Amino acid sequence: MITRRTLLKAGGCALVAYAGAPRFLLRAAHAAEASGKVLVAIFQRGAVDGLSMVMPYGDSGYAAVRPSIGLQPPRRGESERATDLDGFFAFHPALAPLVSLWESRALAVVHACGSPDTTRSHFDAQDYMESGTPGVKSTTDGWLARAVATRSAKSTPFRAVAIGLALPRTLQGDVGAISMQSLDRFDVRNGDDGTARQGFESLYEQGVRDLLHGTGRETFDAVKILKSARASRIAPANGAEYPRVPLGEALRQIAQLIKANVGLEVAFADMQGWDTHVGQGAERGQLALRLRDFGAALAAFAQDLGDKMSDVVVLTMSEFGRTVAENGNRGTDHGHATAMLVLGGGVRGGRVYGRWPGLAHHQLFEGRDLAVTTDFRTLFSEIATRHLGVPSAPIFPGFRSTQPPLGILA
Amino acid sequence: MEKRPVRIADELRAAKVVRAVTSERQLEEVMVDFWFNHFNVFAGKGDVRWYVSAYEREAIRPYAMGRFPDLVRATAHHPAMLFYLDNWLSAKPDFRVPVGPNRGRRAGLNENYARELMELHTLGVDGGYTQKDVTEVARAFTGWTIDRPQTDAHFIFRPMMHDTGEKIVLGHRIAAGGGPGDGERVIELLTQHPATARFVATKLVRRFVSDTPPPVLVARVAGSYMSTGGDIPAMLRTIFESPEFSSEDVYRAKIKKPFEFVASAVRALGGSTDAQGGMALARASAEIGEPLYQAQPPTGFADRGEVWVNAGALLARMNFALGLASGRYPHVSVELPALVAGADPGSPAAVLDRLLVAIVADQAGPETRAVLTAQLREPQITRLSPDDRGPANTDVAKLAALVIGSPEFQRR
Lengths: 410, 412
Fold this sequence. Notes:
The complex is a heterodimer. In chain A, about 35% of the residues lie in helices and about 15% in strands. Chain A is of the alpha/beta class. Chain A has one domain: Alkaline Phosphatase, subunit A (3-Layer(aba) Sandwich), CATH 3.40.720. The longest helix of chain A is centred in the last third of the chain and has 20 residues, at about 285-305. Chain A is globular. The two termini of chain A are about 45 Å apart. By secondary structure, chain B is mainly alpha-helical. Chain B contains 19 helices and 10 strands. Chain B has helices at about 5-20, 25-40, 50-60, 70-75, 80-85, 110-120, 130-140, 180-190, 195-210, 215-230, 230-240, 260-270, 275-285, 305-310, 310-325, 335-340, 350-360, 365-375, 395-405; strands at about 95, 105, 145, 155, 165-170, 170-175, 270-275, 330-335, 380-385, 390-395. In chain B, the strands form 5 sheets. In chain B, strands 1-2 form a two-stranded antiparallel sheet. A two-stranded antiparallel ribbon of chain B has the order 3-4. In chain B, strand 9 (about 380-385) and strand 10 (about 390-395) form a beta hairpin. In chain B, helix 4 (about 70-75) runs antiparallel to helix 8 (about 180-190). In chain B, about 50% of the residues are buried. The chains are: A alpha/beta, B mainly alpha. At the A-B interface, helix 6, strand 7, helix 8 and helix 9 of A face strand 2, helix 6, helix 14, helix 15 and helix 18 of B.
C-alpha cells in the first residue's frame, strides 16, 4: 500500500541524503526552530460520567435521578465532598489535585459537550471523535494527524507521539506519528552490539514504499534522536509526583519529550475503565478511584512542566457521557453529552463553558441523556486554530460551527 | 489465595501459546482465537478472572468449527459473558433482592449485554437496530444470571428478576410470559438475520483475506451463512476456494498480529516450548501489543495492520527476534543447527539461503536478500578463522533474527 505519507517521506529522505548529512541531525535542527506549542490530548475510553466528574449540583433535578450514586453538594470546609467551582458546578472530590489549577485559572471545563452523532456504541463514537468526522466512517485519518500535517512541513519523527501499545486512530494519517510504551526501551536491545540494529535499519530502508517500511524508517530516525537527547534521563521537576498508573507514566514521558526539545507538537495518551455500568460509586468507589488517578496525573504533569506549561494545552475527551439517571445496578448506561477539561497556557480557566441544557425530563436527549450543547468540534477546532495555528476547515471537513466561539483560549 | 486468579490467566495464556506452537490443528487454533476475540471477555474484570479458562473451553472451543448460532447461545449462557457485560445483574425495573447479603437492595435494567450482543456479536453496528431495540433486548435477557458465582458458577434463569411483559425486537413481537424463552427467541432472531450473516462474513474475510474485505466475496460468504444456518466450515470453504483468497493482490497482504508473529517465529525456527516458556512468549506478545485475554473493551483486538504497525511495536518485534534466536527465552528452545543442517558453516551465503527457505519459504524480496547478503560481510556476523584467511563460522542466531525481524516475516 502506498500512502501519501510514505511517498512524502521517501521524497524527503532523498533530498536530505543529497545534502550529505545524517537526516536525523537535520530534522533535529528543524525541530528546534518550531514554535514550541504542544497539544496533549487525553482520551477517557469507555465514556466518562461527566455528571460525576463535574457535578451540576445547582440543577434541582440532579439528586432525584441518582439516589445511590449522586454526590452530596459541596459545603465549605468539607473536603470529603465535591469542590464548588462557580456556585452551580463542582469537581468530584477525587479531583482535588486539580482545584489549585482551577483557582489559578489554568484549567477550564466545557460541559454538555459531545458529538452530533447519536450513536451509543463505544467503538463508533470513539472512531468519530478521533477522526473528527462524526457520522462518517470512511475518513481514513485522524483529526490530530491532520492538524499536524497542516502545519509547516518541518519534519521530526517526534512531531506526533502516542504513549501506548498502539497508534491511536486520531494519529493515523500522513504525519508518521510514533507510538511507544516506554522511552527507556525504545531501541534495539537484547544484547545487541549494534550489528543487529544496523541490519534491521537497512532492511527497512530498502524495499517497497508501504506502511511497514515507512514505519521502520521513522523508527530508526526516532531511536537515534531519542538516544542523543537522553530524554528518558530527565527527572520530574518541581517536586511533581506522578501516580503509578499508565496515564501517569504516559504524561511523565510526554513531559520528558517536551523538555528534551525533540520537536513534539501533539501527544496522545488514553485511560481505560470509565464504562461504569455497575457499582459506579459516589464520593468513593470505582469511578472515584479512576478520577483520583486521572486528576493526580494531570496535576503532576502541570507541576512537572512548570513555566513550560505556557506553551502546552491539555485537552481531555471521552466518546460520550452516561445516562442521567442511574440504572438498576447503581451504575450508568451509555448516554450522550459529557464534560471535557482544558488545561494549560493561554487557557481562560476558572470557568465552565457551554450552555447548560438542564436535567429535567423534557430537557434530556431522547428523554434519558444529557443533551449536547457544544459540538466537540467547536472545542477541538478552537484549540487547533488558536493553539496550533492551523485552519479548521481541513481538520474538521464539512464542519461549520453554529454556535459562537467558546473563547476558551486567550 | 490472592495469587490464584492471576495464575489462572497465566496458565491459560501459556496453554494458548503452547497450542499455537505445537498443535497440528492450526486452523482450529486460529478459529478459537478468532471467536474468543469476537466474543471477547476481559480477564481483568472482576470474577471473569475465575471464569475465563472455562469460557474458552466450554463456550468457544467446542463450537469454533461448528455453527455460529451455537457460539452465540453458548456465550450468552456463560458466567464469564454474563459477568463481563453485566447481564447477571440486570433485572426488571425496581426489582428488590429478596434474600442473601444484598437483601432489599434495588436492582433494575442494565443495557450493556443487549447492546454489545447486537453491535459486536451479531448484527454489527449498522445492522439496523435502535435504542428501543437495545432496551427491549435487555428486558428479554433479564433473569439470565449466575448461580453460585463464588463456587461452581453456572447459568441460571431467575424468574423473579425477569421482566415478563411483551417485547418488540426488530419489529418482531415476543409475547408476554415467555420466561427464559425470550432470550432464546432474541438469539434466534439475531442469528437468522441477514445483517448478522454480512457482519460475520466481513470479519472472516478480513481475517483470512484482506484488511479491506472484497464486497463480492463478503456477499458470497454471507450467502453461505444464510444457506447453512451459520455453518463455520461452510463459510471457511467459500473463502478458501474463492479466487480472491489466492489472488496475487492479497498475497502477504495481512500483517501478522503480535501473537501470530510470536507463535510463527517459534515455529519457523523449529522451536518448542512448555508451560513456563509459554508464559514468557505470552509476555513477548504483550510487549508487541497483544496482551492475551487482556483486551478490555468488548470489541476485542482489532484485525487491521495499521493498528499493529508502529514504531514501538516494530522495535519490540525486532527485540523478540533477537531474544528468540539467541535462546534468551527460558524454556523456549529453537533448533537453529537443524535449520541450517548441511550448509557449510564456513559458507555464510549457504547458511543464509537455508534460513530464507526455512523462515520465509524462500520468498524474500530482492532488497531484503541484498541487505542480508551485505550483512554477511559484517565481522560480527561472519567470524573469520584465526589466521584471517576466510570465514570460519557464521552467527546463525543473528542472521536468523534479522530474517524474523524482516518486513517479509511481519506479513502472512
